[in-house]
Amino acid sequence: MNFHEQKPAALPDRHPFRKLLSGAGKIVRTSVELYIELLKVMIPVLFLVRLATEFGLVQLVSDWLSPLMSFIGLPSAMGLVWATTMIINPYAGAIVFLGLLPDYPLSGAQATVLGMLMLLAHSLPVEQRIVQRAGGGFFLLTALRIIGGYLLAYLMHKIYVSANLLQGPVQIHYLPLPTSDTGWLAWAIESSKTLAVIFFIILGLIVLIRLLDILGITKFLTSFLAPVLSFMGISKLACNMTLSGALLGLAFGGALIIKETQSGNLSPKDIFLSLAFLCLCHGIIEDSLFVMALGADISGVLFARVIFTLVIMFVLGKVIHAIPDAIFERYLFRTRY
Predict the structure, then answer these.
(1) DSSP letters of 304-323?
(2) 235 pLDDT band (50/70/90 cuts)?
(3) How far apart are CA 4 and CA 6, in angstroms?
(4) Any long-range contacts for 172-175 (C-beta under 8 Å, 24+ apart)?
(5) Which among 256, 257, 294 is positioned nearest to 116, based on CA atoms?
(6) What is the C-alpha separation between 326 and 321, in angstroms, rounded?
(7) Which of 11, 91, 151, 282 has the most CB atoms within 10 Å of its CB?
(8) CA atoms of 283 and 162, how far apart (whole Å)
(9) How many angstroms separate the CA atoms of 309 and 151, rounded?
């Protein structure tokens, strides 16, 4: 057989280009699957917000939540965003936020304060059930998230106002805003554009997280922050799981902690402190970037949140380790499989 008669050799299974295509396809599939699940929530929320605006229900909710919102410098209507985020998830809260923003404009500082509320307390029925299965008290750690988020929002509101920071109108560059004063057809078109852009934000976040993993940045951050967690009273064995959840999400970190709980390798106090840390600070990369796409500033949603968590956890670690084991396991910890 001469040169021209030779058949081209088949690409080896581990060919770099084939691996690249396979990895890209997996990322796209993951993004589409997540997006479809989110659409099942976001589309009904869009319609409900539109109807609530049309029939004045937003004003009723606003009146009820007005004292809480005004204390942290937010329009009372933004309480609906916080409530939706706590009950459903940040994406549903974002849809409510974008629907209300044309009628209730915010400054950059206000958007950041709202973003901190959304980051610390969201998806509570789902995520706190994971916490409960791992052994943490449902009501105690849920209260830690809600009260902690509100306290952080209050502190940052005072700082931003006192220092005259981020007082200009919030800037949202990537998401088209649906408006409530248009007809239903125009509203539907604008809302569809918003939903379409959210898909590309999700895709970008997943790509970024994958790149950070490939480049070893996730592993580096885990190693870098492990001594900090040890200083707060979380054992070395629990550090990796805690930091994995902090970077990738409470559901992921919680699943690892549940597994270790069942194996008996972690002490109850280790489990409780790890769960408390995750309740205050998880999904550092993905969640922070998503809220920043809504106009929040990195100073609040990342730096202030991490510092706040470290301070709270240092104090909480001292308190928990001072409590006798018998009392702690009776009132603060329950093993559930």
Answers:
(1) IHHHHHHHHHHHHHHHHHHS
(2) confident
(3) 6
(4) 172/101, 172/293, 172/294, 172/295, 174/201, 174/293, 175/98, 175/293, 175/294
(5) 294
(6) 12
(7) 282
(8) 29
(9) 12
The span from the CA of 233 to the CA of 68, in Å, is 33
What are the pLDDT digits (tens) for 95-135? Answer: 889 888 888 999 999 999 999 999 999 988 888 888 888 88
Provide the H-helix boundaries in 55-137. 57-71, 78-87, 90-100, 108-120, 124-134
Q: Where are the beta strands (DSSP E) in 167-274?
A: none
225 and 216 Cβ atoms separated by less than 8 Å = no
Q: Which amino acid is at 178?
A: P
Question: Could you tell me the sign of the dihedral formed by the alpha carbons of 272, 277, 280, 284, in that order?
Answer: negative
Over the stretch 292-309, which tens digit does the pLDDT of each residue have? 989 999 999 999 999 999
Q: What angle do CA 50, 59, 72 make, to 5 degrees?
A: 110
How far apart are alpha carbons 261 and 254 in whole angstroms? 10
Strand partners, 169: 107
Question: What b/e sequence results for 95-104 when a residue is b if at least 16 CB atoms lie within 10 Å of its CB, and e otherwise?
Answer: bbbbbbbeeb
Q: What's the sign of the alpha-carbon dihedral 320, 322, 324, 325?
A: positive
pLDDT tens by residue, 244-255: 778 777 766 677
Inform me whether the pLDDT recorded for 336 exceeds 60: no
Contact at 8 Å (CB) between 160 and 113? yes
Query: Using an 8 Å Cβ cutoff, are 308 and 154 in contact?
Result: no
* Token pair of 207 as six digits: 């790509």
pLDDT in tens, 18-48: 666 666 778 888 778 878 877 777 788 778 7
Determine the distance from the C-alpha atom of residue 71 to the mean position of all C-alpha atoms in its chain, rounded to a whole number: 23
Phi, psi values for residue 9, rounded to 5°:
-65, 140
Take residue 29 and report the two structure tokens written for it.
Answer: 């599939």
The amino acid sitting at 211 is L
